[in-house]
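User: Could you go from structure to sequence for me? I need the amino acid at each position, not a summary. Structure tokens:
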């Protein structure tokens, strides 16, 4: 059998290098998805444990440099009073625990603690036609002990609309973004997190519907890993067929 022409050998070397590079990328992506799977499962377990634990006092200032991931989804209590202001964060509530669902708003009000610091409280969900004050009771007046769940900021996405400041409607729940909506007392530190009121904080009329903290995390990392590894295996099979046919032509 004669040796393969130099051009054919060069093609085989080039294709081999490309196949090895593509195989490494596909295996790397599959491995990365397995790492993400482990991270997601640990996150879900941590959130479940925090929500099952007894409530504890909300973390007070200073918060500079604090790792808010350590307190996200923790059940907490705060003692103080609501300030008579509110803003709205647009949302679509699915898998609701209460009777209300669909498009609507989180009703957010500032809460002044007895310790002197402030935190924004998500009092619950109202449907799109329930934003007006006549459709629901105001925040509790006077001394209040509130139980809720700490939530970190929801960062805006690439296509997140700008807030409608005139209508007091926002599209992300972020304490820093929402702060200008309120006339907060000067010199009082504002928590960098918000608190979701628990279901027991729902008023007798049923709105705002509290206790709707979202705890469902998409977890398709195993399927993605299988897909990437499957593509890597398919690449090996295709390259094997290609190399075998190339040898037959020698």
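Assistant: Here is the amino acid at each position, in order:
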């Amino acid at each position: 059998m004669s040796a393969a022409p130099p051009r054919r050998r060069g093609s085989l070397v080039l294709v081999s290098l490309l196949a090895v590079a593509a195989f490494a990328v596909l295996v790397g992506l599959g491995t990365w998805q397995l790492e993400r799977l482990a991270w997601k499962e640990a996150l879900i377990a941590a959130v479940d444990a925090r929500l099952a634990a007894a409530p504890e006092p909300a973390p007070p200032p200073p918060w500079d440099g604090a790792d808010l991931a350590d307190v996200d989804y923790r059940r907490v209590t705060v003692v103080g009073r609501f300030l008579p202001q509110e803003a709205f964060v647009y949302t679509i509530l699915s898998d609701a625990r209460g009777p209300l669902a669909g498009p609507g708003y989180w009703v957010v009000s500032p809460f002044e603690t007895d310790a002197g610091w402030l935190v924004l409280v998500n009092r619950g969900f109202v449907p799109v036609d329930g934003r007006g004050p006549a459709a629901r009771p105001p925040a509790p007046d006077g001394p209040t002990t509130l139980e809720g769940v700490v939530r970190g900021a929801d960062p805006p996405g690439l296509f997140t609309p700008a807030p409608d400041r005139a209508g007091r409607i926002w599209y992300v729940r972020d304490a820093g973004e929402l702060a200008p909506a309120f006339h907060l007392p000067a010199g009082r530190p504002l928590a960098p997190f918000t608190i979701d009121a628990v279901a027991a904080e729902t008023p007798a009329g049923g709105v705002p519907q509290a206790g709707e903290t979202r705890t469902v995390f998409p977890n398709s990392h195993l399927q993605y890993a299988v897909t990437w590894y499957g593509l890597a295996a398919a690449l090996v099979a295709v390259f094997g067929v290609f190399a075998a046919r190339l040898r037959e032509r020698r």
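One structural detail worth keeping in mind: The chain has three helices and eight strands.
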